[in-house]
Amino acid sequence: MKFPIRCFTCGKIIGHLYPEYAKRIKSEQPKDVLDSLGIKRYCCRRIFLAHVDISSEILPFNEYSNGD
Questions:
Q1: H helical segments located in 1-68
Q2: What's the confidence (pLDDT) of residue 66?
Q3: Would you call 13 helix, strand, or coil by DSSP?
Q4: CB under 8 Å to 45, separation ≥6 — which residues?
Q5: Backbone phi, then psi, for 2, in 5-degree steps?
Q6: Cα 12 versus chain centre, distance
Q7: Which residues partner with 13 through β-bridges?
Q8: Range 15-59 classified under CATH 1.20.1050.80
Q9: Looking at the DSSP assignment, which residues form a beta bridge with residue 21?
């Protein structure tokens, strides 16, 4: 699914940071990336660490897709 715009717990806007996080996570440790992005609250950090993008797996089952 899509990454949330706001933290579910505290409401801080974090959605704009995910593309940078996803790009840098391939070569750096998650802790270092989150620290450099300024994500300090553990409620926000858990959203980044627990997010799994499954959009590509769900898309073939979309009833509105033109997959005749």
A1: 18-24, 30-37, 42-50, 55-58
A2: 60
A3: strand
A4: 34, 39
A5: -75, 150
A6: 14
A7: 6
A8: no
A9: none
pTM for this structure?
0.76
Count of Cβ atoms closer than 10 Å to residue 14 Cβ:
23
Strand partners, 6: 13
| CA–CA distance, 21 with 67 (Å, rounded to integer) | 33
| Residues recorded for the chain | 68
Q: Which long-range contacts (CB under 8 A, 24 or more apart) does 20-24 make?
A: 21/48
pLDDT digits (tens, 9 = 90+) for 6-54: 999 999 999 999 999 999 999 999 999 999 999 999 999 999 999 888 7
Give the residue extent of every domain in the chain.
15-59
Say which residues have a Cβ less than 8 Å from residue 28's Cβ, sequence separation at least 6. none
Tokens, residue 21: 């996080």
